[in-house]
Design goal:
Order of helices and strands: EEEEEEEEEEEEEEEEEEEEEE
Structural class: mainly beta
Radius of gyration: 22 Å
Number of strands: 22
Oligomer: single chain
């Protein structure tokens, strides 16, 4: 993959017949990504199709085995998948009460020999007569992609009983000035208008003394531009660095500088993020995954200013605990 003539990554793709999680032999497609300047894979993905019955079915139905696309994501140095997706089409009752064919995406995390299902999403397309823009509504007939997200105590192989609708988003494109921009409108339950709207578009601007491809994300609330993020990349000291310029009300408030590299002491790929306010580096974040209390945890170390030791460490993982309100259940622990 190249940007403005510079190679940013290599992706190696191949197929191999092997045993998968169900114990069956399937043809697996591997996609292994190496980012510029990193000697080991920064992303490892296995994709295959399997016939399974442990999906989350429509409410009130009994599962029958069906063909499902399974996507497993791995990180170098970690023997188990860090995330798993089940992707398939099914007839579902969406939040508006209508039955329709939707793409179902189950976002799963391996958990003690079983899967914890973090969320279930319904993705479908619908023609809308009215679109939401930064300036209000506009009458325009357009095909919109709708993504609904549900959370709850899902049990693999059971149905959607107990699922809680937590929100949806509409995705479409509109012409704004001389650019075609991708729009995402975010909705929360019970609110018929978007709580926020994002415009995403690309352009070319001067950064680090050269033309760079800039991705701009503008966020609007109540038709007011509340934040802008400009994202671009640069090659520095043998590594690919991503810059994020953060603006609030058109004022630059901070710049984030992030990159990934292999830490030989940890034997992990680590994501580093430096935050600058003005010319001062106010913090450095170090993020990686490791085992903690028998669980796969995301570990975030924060170093303020130029301190050698972290001022805070967060360990984020899932575990089964006894909650005061809902009894024994799997929860996110921070």
């Amino acid at each position: 993959t190249y940007e403005f003539g510079y190679k940013v990554s290599d992706v190696y793709i191949w197929k191999h017949k092997e045993e998968v999680r169900s114990g069956k032999q399937r043809v697996v497609t591997y996609a292994v990504t190496y980012e510029f300047g990193v000697s080991i894979p920064t992303s490892i993905q296995r994709t295959y199709y399997d016939r399974l019955d442990d999906y989350v079915g429509e409410k009130g139905t009994t599962n029958k085995a069906r063909v499902i696309k399974v996507v497993e994501d791995f990180e170098a140095g970690i023997g188990q998948a860090v995330s798993i997706k089940y992707i398939y089409y099914d007839e579902r009752t969406t939040n508006d009460g209508k039955k329709r064919i939707a793409q179902v995406v189950e976002n799963r995390l391996p958990f003690g020999g079983e899967d914890f299902i973090e969320s279930v999403q319904y993705i479908y397309r619908e023609i809308k007569d009215t679109l939401y823009t930064k300036d209000g509504t506009v009458s325009q007939k357009k095909m919109v992609t709708i993504i609904e997200t549900y959370e709850g105590q899902f049990i693999p192989g059971k149905d959607m009983t107990g699922a809680i609708f937590i929100g949806s988003q509409w995705e479409y494109s509109i012409k704004d000035g001389d650019k075609l921009k991708s729009v995402t409108a975010y909705f929360e339950p019970g609110i018929t208008t978007p709580i926020s709207i994002q415009y995403r578009y690309k352009g070319v601007e001067i950064r680090a003394g050269a033309n760079r491809l800039i991705t701009t994300v503008d966020t609007y609330e109540n038709n007011i531009l509340v934040s802008t993020q400009k994202i671009w990349k640069n090659f520095e000291q043998g590594k690919l660095v991503t810059y994020k310029e953060n603006y609030e009300l058109n004022t630059l408030v901070s710049i984030e500088r992030s990159w990934r590299e292999y830490d030989s002491a940890l034997q992990k790929v680590v994501t580093y993020t430096e935050t600058f306010e003005g010319n001062i580096r106010t913090s450095t974040q170090k993020m990686y995954r490791d085992q903690y209390k028998g669980r796969l945890a995301t570990i975030i170390e924060i170093y303020e200013l130029d301190m050698a030791s972290p001022t805070s460490i967060q360990k984020i993982y899932y575990d089964r605990v006894n909650t005061e309100l809902d009894g024994s259940r799997i929860v996110k622990v921070i």
